[in-house]
Amino acid sequence: MIISVFLISSIVFALLAYIIKRPILSHFVTFLYSVFLCIFVGYEYLHINQTQATYFKPDAIGIIFLIVQAIVDLISIIHYYNYTKSRGDHPKSISVHNMGRIIFNMSIAGVLLANHFGVLWVFMEITTLALSLLIYHDRTTTALEGTWKYVFICSIGIAIAFAGVLFLSIGANEVGIKDLFYDQVKEKVTLINPLWLKACFIFILTGFSVKMGLVPLFNVDIDAKDVSPSPVGAKLSSVVMNSGFVAIFRFYDALSGSSIFTWMNHVLLIVGTMSLLFVVAYSLKVNNVKRLLAYSSMEHAALVIIAFACGGLGYFIAILHLIIHSLVKSTLFFQFAQMHRIFKDKNYLNMGAYLKINPLGALVLFLSYISIIGFPPSCMFITEILIFRSIIDSQYAWLAIVIGFFMLFIIYGMSVRIFHILMGKPGVKEFDEKGKNNLESLIQLVVISAVFYLGIVKPDVVVNYIAMAVSTLPH
Amino acid sequence: MEYLINLIVVAYIVSLIYLAKVELLKTYVKILLVQGLIIFFVALAELKEVDILHLMFVLVETLVFKAIFVPLFMQRVIKRSKQTKNSGMYIKPYISVILATVMVAISFALVESIHDEHLEIKYFTAAISSIMIGLYVGINHRDIITHLISYMIIENGIFLIALALGGEMPILVNSAILLDIFSTILIMGMFFNKIKNYFNSTDETELTKLKD
After folding, report:
1. How does residue A63 score in pLDDT terms, banded at 50, 70 and 90?
2. Is A101's Cβ below 8 Å from some Cβ in B?
3. Which stretches within A213-312 are classed as H helix?
4. Is the CB of residue A291 less than 8 Å away from at least one CB of chain B?
5. Domain range holding A364?
6. pLDDT digit string (tens) for A20-49?
7. I need a surface site. Which of A64, A251, A252, A405 has the fewest CB within 10 A?
């Protein structure tokens, strides 16, 4: 019942946000929706593992990423408000964006809560459509190019993923599974012809790689993060990436009891390592800060998938790493919005002396940088160390050397650029100090502090929920 | 009846091979129309539960959507673009025909090697060929109209996989899937028109501003 109320209310909120052309009111509607989303998340948290409207069931992994989604959405509202205010955006762009944003949130919640592979696919497709409205926000030629590429490649990717669902359906039908509910498939997966399972997993991984930002369909994701407004880039690097992971996780979990388990791990390792290789190749030559952040997201997606493929401790760490990454990377995107307002450029060579121009913003940037490269005492230092431990503990210990080597280059590329922004000589002669916003930086500082807190004191509730999420996987 | 179905599946595969060499945009519309009608016919022939709900759904999904809406929509998009031919291919048309034929042969060999008694080999061969040739057409053509067409060909292939597996998803899920594909085509059409207006061209080489 509650899920139906949520879906219908989301559509009503979306229509309201679109109809109301006065920007402040349209923003207020999205704020109300964000509060509504938080209440919904609270309800789902209290009703864990209870089936709703046949096709939905909030489980531990769904709840974890639903909470992350609600946090990122709430923070991004303030940043999006400032983004439009500083640019004086047209009311129509704002109302279209706000409508897209609400539909996007609804679809991501659908992906996270679905307990049927067909329903998961449907909501994943809706995320693409909603994101097209968000990415095209600035109405520039580059925004149009990025949006077209994203919509086209995502649609192809999602169509390929649907073929994967159908392959699973072929195998499932043969053993008498009538519906593609996760539990039903998992229960009888050992009886399904492994050929169909392999075909399913390959197609699913290829199709959803566009959402998680992994090889082979990662390019359009990078472009989308570059051309979209920073608050949208923040969501692409956190919420969308998480939804891609959850979609792959659902299939991996359901198929893990079958004979293709080791094969799936090999495929994930190949995809993860190839993705890291691409990050090394691109991040050393990229000058555009947003693209740098996008490649950094790809790096972390690759690390997560590698940790996951190693199993054991890797399952737990992969999810913890994703949670932390979502908070840190969205903070970096939010901070970039301020940097862009000040320097009016995305090229890091034209930025500099940020420490002097905007000390609070520079502090946020520095702390986020420390976190994202996995430097102590950030939580990502611990997760990355544990990722390496899980690789060494697995049968692929040699891979730790290769990945470590790749990461040296990635950290070097990131460090050179961030330190230039913080302390280098700015390439532009004039910059707009009015672009500073201490309230935004303070909010970001709170988020980063929470990340450091998570690294030092791991709250039981987080640990228990992650343990619950991975409890069904083979150890 | 079986003979007739085999014949029209062969016609579907021939339309795929022909698609690989097509340059005139209106021919794409004709191919989509023919494929839509073929899919409608085989879906009707394979209908297991003949109740009004399933019959209506098949009618909407195949005849209304694939055989009427999609070709009409594409015709409108092409008319608005004021183009008659696509912007060109990377691989020459006659080589594309050979490659498409090879892809059909590979699909057939692949499906034959599966040895699954539950699988309808003819539909599955047509489906895999459709996906492969759809992807090939998308990669080989420079025109973004052709990219739209390739997406629809892939969608047709995926529909044939659903047909090959015999069983089906609940009608609620199927309806949502249909609605999603419908919206995707509309949104892609909308962005296509915007690209045409902004760049005054539909050649993908215009879309190269985003680089590292």
Report:
1. very high
2. no
3. 219-227, 230-235, 241-255, 261-283, 289-310
4. yes
5. 297-475
6. 999 999 999 999 999 999 999 999 999 999
7. A405
Q: Does A311 fall in a domain?
A: yes
Q: In this predicted structure, what is the pLDDT of residue B50?
A: 64
Of the listed ranges A65-69, A135-139, A431-435, B105-109, the one predicted with least confidence: A431-435
Q: Which residues lie closer than 8 Å to B2 by C-beta, 6 or more apart?
A: none
Q: Which residues of A are less than 8 Å from B187 in CB distance?
A: 129, 132, 151
Measured in angstroms, the CA of A105 and the nearest CA of chain B are apart by: 16
Q: Which of residues 21-80 of B touch A (CB under 8 A)?
A: none
- The answer on pLDDT for B49 being more than 70 is no
B151 reaches A (C-beta below 8 A): yes
Q: Give the number of other Cβ atoms within 10 Å of residue B51's Cβ.
A: 9
Average pLDDT score over residue span A149-162: 94
- C-alpha to C-alpha distance for A242 and A248, rounded to whole angstroms: 10
The beta-carbon neighbor of B176 closest among A122, A178, A291 is: A122
Please report, as a single letter, which amino acid is at residue B53. Answer: L
Q: Is A288 on the interface with B (CB under 8 A)?
A: yes
State percent of chain A over pLDDT 70: 100
Q: Give the residue from A332, A276, A298 showing the smallest Cα distance to A451.
A: A332
Report yes or no on A171 lying in a domain. Answer: no
Distance from the Cα of B92 to chain A's closest Cα (Å) equals 24
Structural domain total, chain A: 1
pLDDT at B167 over 60: no
Select from A100, A107, A135, A132 the least CA-distant residue to A121. Answer: A107
**Mutate: best of A11, A106, A131, A155, partner B, most B CBs <10 A:** A155
ipTM score of complex: 0.94
- Is A263 inside any structural domain? no
The verdict on residue A360 lying in a domain is yes
